[in-house]
Amino acid sequence: QQQVKQSPQSLIVQKGGISIINCAYENTAFDYFPWYQQFPGKGPALLIAIRPDVSEKKEGRFTISFNKSAKQFSLHIMDSQPGDSATYFCAASRGNYGQNFVFGPGTRLSVLP
Amino acid sequence: DTAVSQTPKYLVTQMGNDKSIKCEQNLGHDTMYWYKQDSKKFLKIMFSYNNKELIINETVPNRFSPKSPDKAHLNLHINSLELGDSAVYFCASSSADRGSNQPQHFGDGTRLSIL
Fold first, then answer.
1. Omega into A8 within 30° of 0, i.e. cis?
2. How close does chain A come to B72, measured CA to CA in Å?
3. Residues of B in contact with A42 (CB under 8 A)
4. Whether B93 contacts B2, CB under 8 Å
5. How does DSSP assign A70-97, residue by residue?
6. If we measure between CA atoms, which residue out of B71, B86, B69, B65 comes closest to residue B20?
7. What was the pLDDT predicted at B47?
8. Which residues lie across from B77 on neighbouring strands?
9. Interface subset of B 23-82, CB within 8 angstroms of A
10. Which of B30, B38, B43, B47 to mutate to test the interface with A (most CBs of A within 10 A)?
11. pLDDT tens per residue, range A49-97
């Protein structure tokens, strides 16, 4: 119930293409769904987040699509760039002090020049 | 002016030793966390700490203990280190608002290697 599943495990995209990463969760009590980006040797950094009262959120080239009934959400990176090459984590959380923060297993994205 | 800073960045030590990792945040947050990232990049929360309230992940061995001298610091003490403790440990912080999650800000990690 606490798991967040993420796919694909790795993704290779050509420069200018669209990168799509999918996540699914079981616990309907989750009410916050962030995406984190991690570069080698660095900590995860918040990229974009969504709450379940909206179905889509866009920030620049990054868009989260959220399907509450299917308990799925996805990250779309438009016009992917080599600088986007990193590991991406989806996460889900509910209430209180974040102790119920659960990360997906991560997707390693490589954008070819 | 790093928001969440951890020291040391690298820690190499022998099995059986006791070690500490320090974490400081200058964001004014009142909740801090420790995460373990294994070799497969899987991130798992170990502790969250808010206003003296410690929430422990029950899978964390009691050899691991967080210590918070004040709201801006949450250090991690590890006793009797084992080979399986080798990982990258991340400290994070957030502003806690009961019932409303806030994003977590991570440090750059401490890579712990047990010989």
1. yes
2. 16
3. 108-109
4. no
5. TTEEEEEESS--GGG-EEEEEEEB-STT
6. B65
7. 87
8. B20, B65
9. 31, 33, 40-45, 48, 50, 53, 55, 57
10. B43
11. 999 889 999 999 999 999 999 999 999 999 999 999 999 999 998 765 5
